[in-house]
Amino acid sequence: MSQKAKICLVGATAVGKSSLVGRYVTSIFSESYRTTIGVKIETRLVTRRGRDVELVIWDLSGEDEFQNVQTRYLRGASGYFLVIDGTRRDTLNVAGMLESRVRAAVGALPFVVLLNKVDLVAEWQMTSADVEAMQARGWAVLEASAKTGAGVTEAFDRLTDQILGARQWL
Amino acid sequence: MNELPPTLGSVVVALGGVVIERLADGRFAARSRPPPWLPELRRAGLDEDAPFALEDVFPFLSVFLPEAEEAWRRGPPARADSDFWTETDRRGNDIHLEATALRLEDKPLLVVMRNERLFHGNQKTLQRARELRITHDALMREIEQKDVLVHAIVHDLAAPLHSMMGVLSLLSEQRLTAPASEWIELGLQAATRQRELISEILDVFTAESDVSSSRALHGAALDEVLTEVISERAPVARSRDVRLELGAPVPPCRVIAERTRLFRVLTNLVDNALRYSPPGGVVQVSVVPQGTSIVVRVEDQGPGVAPEALPRLFEKLARGPDGAGTGLGLFFCRITVESWGGGIGYERREEGGARFWIHLNRSDGHGEAPLAR
Predict the structure, then answer these.
(1) What's the CATH number where B30 sits?
(2) pTM, full prediction
(3) Mutation for testing the B interface, residue in A21, A40, A68, A125 having most B CBs under 10 Å
């Protein structure tokens, strides 16, 4: 009998949240951009630390001028990803704002900052100072590419481990 | 199964939905036959008439419950509609769902509907808007990067130019034939003009990227800057046989501006006036107080601005009819003055000629200073 853990992905629009979930759940990546409306829910069964865990993954619509992230959707979550597009520095500011809103709405939850699109080296806008500033706040920061798959499974494993450590379950 | 009246239940099923009722113990039970898409979601079935936990069948609705509870508490005609949510069936197809909470025949119900058409319509609209925003942002970043590149190139062009001007100046001091002296003088004039153009381009770049400079808050002495401008441009006026004059002495007054840029703005306006003035003409600079502002006017006796050029007069790359200049001078003046909270304008003089004006806010606290008129 597996235990369930709800995890959410939040971030600015088009940072690659759905692509990360698609890569993790189905190993598929599509170049075409399909915006998410509301929430898309996927599941994946994993085994970590000798336990079977059913990850119920909530991929939330991105934050922008057209839609706000509904922080109430994080109720009951065991942890979340704060996704940033490494080629768009403004998404770093959105992530910072979302972290505050999530904390105010549902309290402190385990989370991992995921710098996506690490394959786009030539367009990369994040600096080591940006990463160090986040780490100085105690945030776990990982790099990943939904396109190549690099770092994606590691990121989900890392968050799952954090959740297992925190013992918050559905 | 404790179903809804047959007709109502059939309607919901025909529309691709399912009705579930919240029971007294907080669990839920189906009140209509499950639609075809529901068993495909790999969740607990609803056809067993057995109560179920909402999150086991529709995890999304667990976050919608507080809104649903409120609608049930208020009773008809209150209702609550959820956002769309998407689940994936066992074949990998996306199922787009939405729910409505309402109380019917005193039963707290949730109607869960599959609505692909509405979802895709909404998605198409939102996607288009987001794509346009992303494209716009990407273009802005590209423009910024190109601006930086252009700035670097223009800046680098200035260094060899200074060397060339130095060499030409040294040559002009040698004993040369009359034609050679004339050629060197022409070379120096061209190089000087080139330096002014480079300076203009760099001014615009600086103004665009640093419009919120706090240095402007300290203010600048308008009277001193104006005197410097008149004094510096007097030789140019003489060389064109134009009289450059200050309408009346300007008493000490400070305006919200950054001194170096204010000098450039006023020099730009005076240079334009000198360029278009006929030989023997007059370019007059005057200062007029207006409440907490000060208006500086630069008037000439030239042909004025052609009506067709007026709409783009202060825009980037708007050139005069003779094609002279970079088309950046008045644009630089506008964005610079506007960044100080001031303004710029043009009007045709009744007696002929052009009148450009800028208004600047006073920073010395004087509302109606006794400026000479």
Answers:
(1) 3.30.450
(2) 0.65
(3) A40
Q: How far apart are CA B68 and CA A12, in angstroms?
A: 28
Phi then psi for residue A150, to 5 deg, are -60, 130
From B209, B226, B246, give the residue that closes a domain. Answer: B209
Cβ contact A35–B123 (<8 Å): yes
Q: Which amino acid is at A90?
A: D
pLDDT digits (tens, 9 = 90+) for A24-62: 998 888 888 889 999 999 999 999 988 899 999 999 999
Residue of chain B whose Cα is closest to the Cα of A61? B85
Calpha distance B39→B81 (Å, rounded): 23
pLDDT (mean) for B114-131: 92
Say whether the ipTM exceeds 0.90: no
Same domain assignment for residues B11 and B94: yes
Domain of B48 in residue numbering reads as: 6-114
Please list the residues that pair with B96 across neighbouring strands. Answer: B86
B133 interface with A at CB cutoff 8 Å: yes
Q: Does B127 touch chain A (CB under 8 A)?
A: yes
Q: Is residue B125 part of a domain?
A: no
The domain that holds A46 is classified in CATH as 3.40.50.300
B105 Rama class: left (phi>0) / alpha (psi -120 to 50) / beta: left
Q: Report the gap between the CA of A142 and the closest CA in chain B (Å).
A: 24
Residue B55 touches partner A, C-beta closer than 8 Å? yes
